[in-house]
Amino acid sequence: MKRGKVWTRLSGGMLIGAVNGLLGGGGGTLAVPLLRAGGLPVRQAHATAISVILPASAVSGLVYLIGGFAPPAVLVPVLLGVLAGGYLGARLLGVLPVRAVQFVFALLMLLAGWRMLL
Asked: What CA–CA distance (Å, rounded) separates 17 from 28?
C-alpha cells in the first residue's frame, strides 16, 4: 500500500475515533462516507465502519465507565438490546438491496441531524 494511502486512512481513523469518543457515537456516520470515497462498495463500507467503531467504542466506553459517566443500571439492559439489534442489522446488511441500505443510512443521518437542530 502506498504511503499516502496509509497516512490518509490513519488520519481518517483518528478523526473518526475522536468524534466517536467525544460524542459517544457518530463515528460510523463519518466512516461510511470516507470509506465510500476511498473506493469501498456500500456493504463493505458499512461493515468496515462497524468493525472499526467497535474497538473505538470499547476504549471510549471504558473511559466513560471509569469516569462514572455510564450508570451500570442503564448500561446492562441497553447493552443487551444493542447486541441483539447489532446481530439483526449485520444479518440484514447481507440481504437487503444496496439502495435500501443507502436509503436507510441517509434517512437516519437526516433524522439525527434534524433532531439535533431542534
From this structure: 9
Q: Are 25 and 39 in contact (CB under 8 A)?
A: no
**Given this model, what pLDDT does residue 96 score?**
94
Neighbour tally for 32: CB within 10 Å: 23
Contacts from 40-46 at CB under 8 Å and sequence distance 24+?
Answer: 41/98, 42/98, 42/101, 42/102, 43/93, 43/94, 43/98, 43/101, 46/93, 46/101, 46/105
Residue type, 76: V
Q: Annotate 65-77 with b (16+ C-beta within 10 A) or e (fewer).
A: eeeeebeeeeeee
- Contacts of 33-38 with C-beta under 8 Å, sequence gap 24+, read 38/8, 38/9, 38/12
Global pTM?
Answer: 0.72
Residue appearing with cell numbers 442489522: 89
Above 60 in pLDDT, residue 8?
yes
